[in-house]
Amino acid sequence: MHVQHHNAHLPRSVQAQAARLVLQANLAYGESNSNGLSYVQRLKARHECREYLDQALAIEPENAAALGLLGRVEMDDGQLEKAHTLFNASLNSQPGQAQQYCNLGYWALKSERPALAEEYFLRALECDRQSAAAFCGVAHAKRLQGQFDVAYLHYRKLLQTGSQWDSVYSGMLTCAQHLQIHKADTDLAQDAIALLRKDGLPHQEIGRFVGAIIQQQYDLDTPNAEVFLDAAAEDELLILALQKTLMPNAAVEELVVMLRRAIMAEVAQTASLRDELQPLCLAIAEYADRTGYALAAEDDEERLATTINDSIVAQFAVREPQEALIGSLMISAMYGALFHQSFAMQLGQWNLVDWPLAMQPMMAASYYSRAEEEAIKQNFDEKAEELCLAKTDVPQAWPAWSQLAYRTETSLKAVMAQELGLNTDNLPATLRIMVCGAQSGQRAMELAQYLDDVEVIAVDESLANIAKATRMAQSLNMDNIVFWPWSIAQRFVADGHQVHWVEVGRLPSPAMTKLSLAALINSASISGAVVHMHTSMAEQTAGDKQIRRLIAEHQLQPTRTSLRQLRRMVLANKQDTVWANLLKDDDFYSLGGCRDRWFRPQDAAQLKELLALVSNEVEWKLVKARDEDGHSLATAPVQRQIQAEALGSEVQSLMGQNLSVYFQRRR
């Protein structure tokens, strides 16, 4: 090989010294990618790695390992061209290295060329059939080409062979969201169990996948399919799914309602809750809470639930011990939040940790978390609007997420420089992000958590969302994020405060008559600020429009009763094509989601006004555009559409095209 010829003239001691420096560089590089270290510590380790490599290459300029590792460092710093040159230089120095073909594969992925990446990863596998990194690279490349089924099987194989990396679980979870499940399969069920058992994953994102597997397992497409309560009570997948997801599946919702009724029927007959049924009962109670108690119950069940609540009141009156209440509380929580019951005050005598371990997640959801959120709401004037509502009609936070998505920590400045090609030299140490329409806070908290140089102001019109998000941020000890209603955000901007990045989420509803999102963003954006927004609005199915017409016609109010009746109408006519898209949407399976999209829909006028603002080329520049699948688009044609739209051309309209666009303020 060429490298042997080249290195032959170097003394062995020099080669050994270079090898030692490369080894130290490798250790430092490993630290620079360690999740256990802060972003600043990781940058320091990357800097150390670069210093060792510079020393190694000074004494052995064609050291293949040093050239390749320096390429990785350059790639992590966003210097893709330099990285590409270094990987190729390493291969010239020592051909046939699986590692360098892998590196070129990841370079191609970063360059948004997944087909080329796949070729490089396959070359790496030709050099080393056992390379898990190359096989994982093929999986990522297949996923980014939209071949989700093939990628999914690659990820499964990696887990089976012991490569249980976070990126494998994360990739598999992403693919699972895109799979069509047509028949029951034990392998798929085991995959779902593995994903749901894995801590730290955003399990809320695989509700559809898990629901489809359960639908097939229980043969729910067959009319009058037999379901056995005892078998369901031992079904690990079903119990995990009820604990951790919301399944947008009408047949699964029916199954849960049926199982809840079966538990209640047995309790009514035997006056006790069997130990074997308790895990299922607790899981159904957690699930019912996540749906905002959307699950319909028959009148006789409701009467029995009321009787059980009355008996709990009586038990408190005669001061029965805590353990005597446990079974009744489990059953009560399947039908309504314990926080809303007349005995709620008495539950406050115990802390969450005073309850049996298996009960604690249910008690947190049904009582303790709600109490915390209620205390948070008292800090805002908007709380006055809730005082005239019945307890069960108070809006629910939505979406019902539980885990932040997996992301590698970085900085906003690095994102601005690497993704958008912007100059960040004159930016301050800490940048301020405003998330408009943050809903229940998942996206805003991800930004605050994985960007180390930001403080985040997240704004939403729902007080329930603000309270839930604040509680979640407190539980994660996050001190660089606040959640505010629009009134406080407007005062903040009116006082002259500005931000460096605006993220537009859910648009304000027509109820926000005193808010112009475009005017707020115009005032809040500092020179050089970036606005990231989408050009289309969700929640616009034919079913939604029909329901909004019914609401206007009958002047319905957003009570729990009205929302349940509207849902019941849709479910009773689910074969009608007008409801098809609505029934596929996660929002439909929670009263919080239904309330938002039917009674507080997004205001198209706000989006039009915002697009008109950023179409002013003197003030704003389009710096990046992506399509629905996340692929970068040429900015010139998108810019032409924006200009045409500003001139009133409907033909060229961006509205409804679902592009993700980034604008920078010029001055």
Automatic annotation (TrEMBL):
<dbReference type="InterPro" id="IPR011990">
    <property type="entry name" value="TPR-like_helical_dom_sf"/>
</dbReference>
<dbReference type="InterPro" id="IPR029063">
    <property type="entry name" value="SAM-dependent_MTases_sf"/>
</dbReference>
<dbReference type="InterPro" id="IPR019734">
    <property type="entry name" value="TPR_rpt"/>
</dbReference>
<dbReference type="Pfam" id="PF14559">
    <property type="entry name" value="TPR_19"/>
</dbReference>
<protein>
    <submittedName>
        <fullName>TPR repeat</fullName>
    </submittedName>
</protein>
